[in-house]
Amino acid sequence: MTTPLFYLYLNEQQAGPYAIDQIFSMWNAGAITADTLVWKEGMPDWISVQTLLAAQPTSPSAPFVQIQPKASIRISNPDKPAFKGIAWLKFWNYVALPLHVAFSLLYILAFPIGAIFLLPYAGLTVATGVGLHQRKRWGWILNWILMSIVYLNGIFSFQGGAKQFSGAYWVGFAIHAVILGLIWIWPNLVYWRKRESLFTQQ
After folding, report:
1. In what side-by-side order are the strands of the sheet with 13-19?
2. Which of 97, 147, 162, 176 could form a disulfide with 169 if both were Cys (CB 3.0 to 4.6 A apart)?
3. Where is the domain boundary, 84, 118, 137?
4. How many structural domains comprise the chain?
5. Range of 59's domain?
6. Which of 22-26, 157-161, 170-174 has the lowest mean pLDDT?
7. What's 59-81 look like in SS3?
8. Which pLDDT score, from 0 to 100, does residue 60 have?
9. Which tens digits make up the pLDDT trace of 114-140?
10. What are the φ and ψ backbone dihedral angles of 40, each rounded to 5 degrees?
11. Is 199 helix (H, G, I), strand (E, B) or coil?
12. Is the pTM of this model over 0.70?
């Protein structure tokens, strides 16, 4: 009988395959955690290592912490990466967010009284970057708040060519809001929800 081979999601990429004995050894050595994702051919979804090892005839010597597996990810080919398209995540976290902080601080230095409201925004941006870098669940949640603020800022920056608060102005405002939602909110909604499983740590 062929020994089942498993793939792990480690350091933002798919690793393996590993035999179950190797996974036990990695668990006991502390190389993987209870919520590390695992998959083998024939399984429809990724599951946590906790779920896999708890179902085995023998248990690892280290005690398990009961957890609820996070949202799983389905793949059809184990030779392909389990998670695709993290380039935007890296750009957003390591380029866009630092630029947001830098520009906010520069604006505050240039206009210290009028721009003081940017301090909480800069703090939120820093916290979001730290949370995303550490793959924390709270970082993923803060990221949604930050993206919503960016969206609202884009909406209310609308000027329009019509007289302010006239009927034509509000039509233009609504069109502007819809277009911005389609090019900013909707793509990010799809992108970040598909990568929710990356942010399992509390």
Report:
1. 13-19, 5-10, 37-40, 47-48
2. 162
3. 84
4. 2
5. 1-84
6. 157-161
7. CCCCCCCCCCCCCCCCCCCCCCC
8. 46
9. 677 888 888 999 999 999 888 788 998
10. -140, 160
11. coil
12. no
